[in-house]
Design goal:
The protein has two domains: 107 residues, ACT domain (Alpha-Beta Plaits, 2-Layer Sandwich), CATH 3.30.70.260; 68 residues, 2-Layer Sandwich (Alpha-Beta Plaits). Strands 5, 6, 7, 8 and 9 form a five-stranded antiparallel beta sheet that branches. Strands 2-3-1-4 form a four-stranded antiparallel beta sheet, with helices on one face. The protein is of the alpha+beta class and 195 residues long. The longest helix is centred in the N-terminal third of the chain and has 12 residues. β6 and β7 form a beta hairpin. The protein starts with a strand and ends with a helix. It has eight helices and nine strands. 35% of the residues lie in helices and 35% in strands.
């Protein structure tokens, strides 16, 4: 059964990596609902947050493929119950409409919104939350002449994660000789150079 999954990918910030990852989704005809890239808590490591609707089996295979990319350090997938997430939304409405309606301020407070720009011709409000919450404010503001609406991509933190820096520490303590043995028959020169 399809459901919403959030894929978190930790990478070195290399040119072309986003394109290579996006191609993996398009080849499988998987629509990306939301995509965010940002620095992580570790300097030089970037974090991709990708939201898709798919079956667990497909997501599991996709994450394995993503991890095979040279610049990808680690990839995870989680359901909405396993993460804390938010999206930012901006709403532009005519200032004269809003100014005439005294109850608008109360409605905005109920939805956790605040004014970020107030001009003669328009006012821009901002709020953050889950998609359902930001969509409710669209419905509230439509009667006041909603001019424009935009929502950011999802940002998410895995609830049961100690952070990626802990995972990096694990890599540092691995014996490099053990890791090399997992890669194949290096001790047998004939099998390495066989055509």
């Amino acid at each position: 059964m399809k459901q919403e999954y959030t894929i978190t990918v930790f990478t070195e910030n290399q040119v072309g990596l986003l394109n290579r990852i996006a191609i993996m989704f398009s080849r499988r005809k998987i629509n990306i609902e939301s995509l965010n890239t940002s620095p992580s808590e570790i300097e030089g490591i970037h974090r991709f947050t990708i939201v898709i609707n798919e079956t667990e089996d497909v997501v599991r295979k996709l994450v394995r493929q993503i991890e095979k990319q040279v610049d990808v350090l680690k990839a995870y997938f989680n359901t909405n119950d396993e993460i804390v997430w938010q999206e930012l939304a901006l709403y532009k409405v005519p200032t004269d409409e809003i100014a005439e309606k005294a109850k608008v301020e109360r409605l905005l407070r109920e939805h956790g919104a605040r004014a970020v720009v107030i001009r003669k011709d328009y006012t821009i409000f901002e709020t953050s939350g889950h998609r359902e919450e930001t969509d409710k404010l669209i419905t509230v503001l439509e009667p006041f002449g909603l001019i424009e609406f935009v929502r950011s991509a999802r940002v998410a933190i895995i609830k049961n994660s100690k952070g990626f820096h802990e995972k990096l520490k694990e890599f540092e303590f691995l014996d490099p000789h053990e890791a090399r043995q997992d890669n194949g028959p290096i001790d047998d020169p004939l099998s390495v150079f066989a055509m």
